[in-house]
Design a protein that fits this description.
This protein has 199 residues and is an alpha+beta fold. It has 2 domains: 95 residues; 46 residues, no CATH class. The chain has 4 helices and 6 strands. It has a 4-stranded mixed sheet with strand order 1-2-4-3. It has a two-stranded antiparallel sheet with strand order 5-6. Helix 1 packs across helix 4. The radius of gyration is 37 Å and the shape is elongated.
Amino acid sequence: MKSMTGFGSGTATKDGITCTVEIKSVNARFLDLFIRSPKQINPFESIIRGLVQDRITRGKVEVSVSIQDAGERPKTFTINSVLRKQIQELLVQEEFYDDPKKVPLQAVNSISNEWIQQQDTPIAEDVLSEIVQESTNQALDALITMRTVEGKHIEQDLLSRITTLENIIKIIDENKAGAVDAYREHIKGKIQEYLVSLE
């Protein structure tokens, strides 16, 4: 017997990228699956959905996925030349300099540094796929273990209650003959009292 209520989490790391998956489930007649994840995980939601559906058939299941990037990948830089030229022309227009070509980059940077954009090299899809699957499987293992343990507790509680009810029924069966006779005598006594009061 397994409970439908449980929680499990799993974490996997590769190339400085850490994926954490948390799965919660509560009682429901059918499988109702909801996945919350960052945009970069969207292509892998069908994989997560398949892994969950292979191992869980009932319950309201919520999967939360998070990605942490240690930032150890190489950086790429992009220069927005149009914005840089606009800032240089603005400085000339405001008469800080007389020629846009003579405006130093430090002056451009003092107005805005958005003309230089720094980006991490994109995370390789095979790395994401691997850590998403690994962390999802770990979370499912933990969830199923918790549901099994909880199910055993529920089973033991139900068996204990059944034993208690069986004992109560046994006591009732043992005492019912005497109880019927006692009740019969009680009613006879009440009738006798009523008849006496009528005389």
